[in-house]
């Protein structure tokens, strides 16, 4: 039944469309079909969920996301300060040095993957008047309240806004995204036309990869992320300064530390700095970490002093 209605839909595609020929009528249901009807059907279905996504900030993380978007068949456009046209071409994306040209392609989704520190400048420089009026703006910054407020302030009310944070990166997500969290808040999604559907289609990209979908407010995200993400990056960066090496007698705990260094080491300092500067909870976390380290040292040195003092007094009593 479903295939039948698709087959008639295919035959009505206008001559300028991709499926130009009307297939010869099928006389018996079990007869060999003249072309791969199932593949055509699936192509038609796929095209109905495909999005044209413009990635702004085509660096480390933008390119990492693009690999999966491209594999799922979405049309990709990219723009960055640096010329990443070769990387874009290798992913089947069209690279635009001029953001005017990119916006004139009328993407369904504009995805900001710029560094936290540069996002406000990049957003202000985007010629949003060249976009379709109901474009969906999404972003993947590792802090959430800051871009939410920025987008609400900067974008006219007819643009939709979706804040997301894939809680993984090129290192931790290199073997797939299954089970990895995608945090999101639908900040402003219009309830007319196909806006809700377009937002769902974008989120479906992550759901199809098996991500754990976590709907959470941006404020709640930032409170949690200071304790989890900023702490993880801080400890990873601290340990990387010790230039740790693997030995023949590594314990599981030590292996976990080496992995932490590896996971956080490929991220830029700019990203780490953004986690600190643009999450108000990070300062408190850093202070707590500092106090915890001091108190740990006090405990250790206090005990050492006790032992030394005891020895000193015992020695003097013997003399
Ligand atoms: P990043 O250092 O945070 O950002 C690099 C991107 O920002 C590049 O595209 C770079 O442009 C652009 N950029 C930096 N300074 C700029 C400036 N002054 N003007 C214009 N563009 C500028 O590294 P990233 O890992 O690619 O992260 C991108 C975003 O994804 C960040 O917001 C980060 O928080 C978020 N994120 C990252 C991860 C991760 O694991 N890496 C995970 C989740 C979310 P060029 O291409 O021209 O260099």
UniProtKB/TrEMBL annotation:
Question: Which InterPro entries would you find in this protein's record?
Answer: 6-PGluconate_DH-like_C_sf, Arogenate_DH_2, NAD(P)-bd_dom_sf, P5C_Rdtase_cat_N, Prephen_DH, TYRAAT1/2, TYRAAT2_C
The molecular function GO annotations come to: arogenate dehydrogenase (NADP+) activity; prephenate dehydrogenase (NAD+) activity; prephenate dehydrogenase (NADP+) activity
Keywords associated with the record: Oxidoreductase
Listed GO biological process terms? tyrosine biosynthetic process
Q: Give start-end of the signal peptide.
A: none
User: Which ranges carry the Prephenate/arogenate dehydrogenase domain?
Assistant: 51-319
Transmembrane regions listed in the UniProt entry: none
Q: Which Gene3D superfamilies match?
A: NAD(P)-binding Rossmann-like Domain
Coiled-coil boundaries:
none
The protein's name in its UniProt record: Prephenate/arogenate dehydrogenase domain-containing protein
């Amino acid at each position: 039944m479903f295939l039948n209605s698709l087959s008639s839909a295919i035959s009505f595609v206008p001559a300028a469309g991709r499926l130009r020929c009307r297939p010869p009528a099928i006389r018996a249901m079990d007869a060999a079909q003249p072309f791969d009807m199932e593949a055509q059907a699936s192509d038609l279905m796929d095209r109905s969920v495909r999005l044209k996504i413009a990635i702004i900030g085509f660096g480390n993380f933008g390119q990492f996301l693009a690999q999966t978007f491209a594999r799922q068949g979405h049309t990709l456009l990219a723009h960055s300060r640096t010329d990443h046209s070769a990387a874009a071409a290798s992913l089947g994306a069209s690279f635009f040095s001029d953001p005017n040209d990119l916006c004139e392609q009328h993407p369904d989704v504009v995805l900001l993957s710029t560094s936290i520190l540069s996002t406000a400048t990049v957003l202000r420089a985007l010629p949003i008047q060249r976009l379709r009026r109901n474009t969906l703006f999404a972003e993947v910054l590792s802090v959430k309240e800051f871009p939410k407020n920025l987008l609400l302030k900067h974008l006219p009310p007819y643009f939709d806004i979706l804040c997301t944070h894939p809680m993984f990166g090129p290192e931790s997500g290199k073997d797939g995204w299954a089970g990895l969290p995608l945090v999101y808040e639908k900040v402003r999604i219009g309830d007319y036309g196909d806006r809700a559907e377009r937002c769902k289609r974008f989120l479906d990209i992550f759901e199809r990869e098996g991500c754990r979908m976590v709907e959470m407010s941006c404020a709640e995200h930032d409170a949690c992320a200071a304790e989890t993400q900023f702490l993880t990056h801080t400890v990873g960066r601290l340990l990387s300064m010790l230039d740790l090496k693997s030995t023949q007698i590594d314990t599981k705990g030590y292996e976990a530390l080496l992995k932490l260094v590896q996971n956080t080491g490929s991220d830029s300092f700019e990203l780490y700095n953004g986690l600190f500067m643009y999450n108000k909870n990070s300062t408190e976390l850093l202070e707590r970490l500092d106090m915890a380290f001091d108190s740990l040292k006090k405990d250790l040195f206090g005990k050492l002093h006790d032992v030394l003092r005891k020895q000193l007094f015992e020695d003097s009593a013997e003399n």
